[in-house]
Amino acid sequence: MKKNDDVLNNGILKDDILTDLRIIEKEKVQKIRADFPFFKNNPEIVYLDNAATTQKPYILLEKEKEFLEKYYSNVNRSASKFSFHTTELLDKSRDIISKFINSNFNEIFFTYNATYGLNYLALFLAYNYLKENDEVILTQMEHHSNLLPFTYLSKIFNFKIKIWKLNNNLELDLNDLEKLITPKTKVISITYMSNVLGVVNNIESISNIVKDKGIMLLIDAAQGIVHNEIDTKKIDIDFLVFSAHKLYGPTGLGVVYINKKHFKNLQTKTPAFAGGGIVSKVNIDENLIDIGLLGFPYYFEPGTPAISQIYSFSHVINYLENINYYDYKTYEIKLTKYLVNKLQELGFIELYGYDRNEVSRNRFGIVPFNVKNVHSHDVSTVLDNYGIVIRVGHHCAQLINKKLNVDSTCRVSLAFYNISNEIDTLIQALYQVKKIFKL
Ligand SMILES: Cc1ncc(COP(=O)(O)O)c(C=O)c1O
Q1: Nearest atom, ligand 1, residue 395 CA
Q2: Pocket of ligand 1 (CB under 6 A)
Q3: Does domain 2-34+325-436 have CATH number 3.90.1150.10?
Q4: Burial class (CB within 10 angstroms; exposed 0-12, middle 13-18, buried 19+) of 347
């Protein structure tokens, strides 16, 4: 690991990086690619849009099919042995998924995606914790899914939103956080990793700053968990949210972690969503509302959950554990370094953040850029002709664009199954952009 980091940080041994990448690709990454049917079925496509969503391993398709063919019924409510068994499978799956972030079975609940999880938590905090003039800190690098729920609710519940701004390195400076915090600060809600800049925030230090001040820490881990290990026992986090589909899992499934210290008095709190499956008793009359709520996690899961998706996702998690998924982080960092070097060599690319900072464990995997004097949508049209899938636009994080002084960027986002050849294809296509637009 040390040697690898040295190679990256020296920034001189470009050929060594390629040689190194090719060895890892041959020994490990090609085997991984064989686990994903997408690559066999689309040999002409170069998929570099992993921050939007990731491709799916065979195990996901197999387990989804197995579940629907053999075990399908509703869960939690029925008295039949068959449905009990399905509920057991669901419970086992919940256990596996919770362990992935080193939490417990009864510390996670399921939603549709990260966006729904973030909305749930914003509502839950507004209903039960936030008072008039309280302050919620968000950051300039937030995805709209974290930014907008709190912002809308601030108008109704009259709490204040404060934005932790990016510095000129396009990072969040911890000193600036200290300056923003006041006795009225109740929540800080922050992304673990920027979906535009590739910056990984130091959530351990942030947790250390806020935890003695009674401030609740909410982590949007939609991107962060894809590239960085999370240990909820090591870092004191109050809430954490991610989507299964960005972590090689199914769509329609989000995961929310709540630190068990918040389970106290749950019965006296108002759930953000209510309905079937969360109550022990309901008695409502003209002058009476008497509702008994179930405990965690059922309290947070009204309605039928995404049963087969939870099951198949737990098998994706097993797959990731078996291949020591997070060991690929070093490979992803090297691949990013290779990409950034190549983009810099072109001479007609504007890089954001990577123009003034090294690729490192705190900035990798996601690379925003523009081709000078060419709109990102035109770039994407040319790349599309070469089968290259990237994302262009504002990436649902428009506060960043204001800082960059642009209205859109091209974004390449890598996953552990990408290879150096794919980056070479991208670079060749960018030469075509140069030719077409006579740069
Ligand atoms: C940092 C971040 N947060 C939240 C989301 C929302 O995720 P989803 O669309 O799965 O709800 C995204 C999606 O791109 C993201 O990148």
Answers
A1: 14
A2: 51, 113-115, 143, 145-146, 191, 195, 220, 222-223, 243, 245
A3: yes
A4: exposed
One-letter amino acid of 415 = A
299 pLDDT exceeds 60? Answer: yes
pLDDT digits (tens, 9 = 90+) for 364-397: 999 999 999 999 999 999 999 999 999 999 999 9
Ordered by start, the domain boundaries in the chain are 2-34+325-436, 60-321
Helices 58-66 and 307-322 cross at an angle (nearest 10°) of: 140
How far, in Å, are 114, 230, 310, 325 from residue 64 at the CA level?
21, 26, 9, 21
Beta strands at 46-47 and 388-389: parallel, antiparallel or unpaired = parallel
Residue type, 412: V
> Which member of 45, 396, 406, 439 is catalytic?
396
DSSP state, residue 141 = T
How many whole angstroms separate alpha carbon 121 and alpha carbon 145?
Answer: 12
Question: Structurally, what CATH architecture does the domain formed by 60-321 represent?
Answer: 3-Layer(aba) Sandwich (3.40)
User: How long a stretch of residues is the chain?
Assistant: 439
The answer to whether 176 touches 206, Cβ cutoff 8 Å, is no
Ligand 1 atom nearest to 115, measured from its CA: 11
Residue bearing the CA closest to ligand 1, atom 12 = 222
145 Cα: distance to centroid of ligand 1 (angstroms):
6
Q: Which of the two residues, 84 and 4, has the higher pLDDT score?
A: 84
Q: Is 396 a catalytic residue?
A: yes
In this structure, what is the dihedral angle of CA atoms 154, 158, 159, 165, given to the nearest 10 degrees?
50
* pTM, 2 dp: 0.95
Q: Which numbered atom of ligand 1 lies nearest the CA of 118?
A: 4
pLDDT digits (tens, 9 = 90+) for 154-204: 999 999 999 999 999 999 999 999 999 999 999 999 999 999 999 999 999
CA distance 180 to 5: 34
| Contacts (Cβ under 8 Å, ≥6 apart) of 289 | 283
